[in-house]
Amino acid sequence: MEDTINLKKIINKDLMIINSQATDKDTILKELCLLLQEKKYINDYQSFLNDIYLREKEGVTGIGDGIAIPHGKSISVDETTVAIAVLKDEIEWETLDDQDVKVVILFAVKDTDATTTHIVLLQKVATLLARETFIKQLKNIENKEELYDLIINS
User: Fold this and answer.
1) How many CA atoms lie less than 13 Å away from 120 in the CB half-sphere?
2) What parts of the sequence cross the membrane (predicted)?
3) Most CB atoms closer than 10 Å: which of 80, 128, 137, 153?
4) 57 C-beta neighbours (distance < 10 Å), count
């Protein structure tokens, strides 16, 4: 049972989008899913997207402060990872604070990964997102290198 996760093994610059032009939730989720498929982290774009929407029906994934953490645990995921988009403009999203979203952190979790892997990954990211300075820096990221360094070195 894995209770620690090395973010360097999960976070990948190839799965980051800076200044996404997406103007709604649907568009950004599709954009991130296509990126995951293109980079071979998932094997079935539509199936994974469906699993994300199933999870979305269970509860709000907009955690507040302009951040959303949608996630899908799916047989379509070949390798557990995270895809991140920093949006050019905030978009509407169901959130705990009723504010729009600027950053989307999509968790793609392999169905066969132990439940603890998913929880530990969420906890690790949640710990980062609990820090006000981290969130402020995250929203003002200008390139993938900055985003990667912020996450890995925080």
Assistant:
1) 15
2) none
3) 80
4) 6
Can you say whether residue 37 is alpha, beta or left, with left for phi > 0 and alpha for psi between -120 and 50 degrees? Answer: alpha
Q: Which two tokens stand for residue 91?
A: 């978009």
Rounded CA separation 100/45 (Å): 26
Contact 91, 147 (CB under 8 A): no
Give the global pTM: 0.92
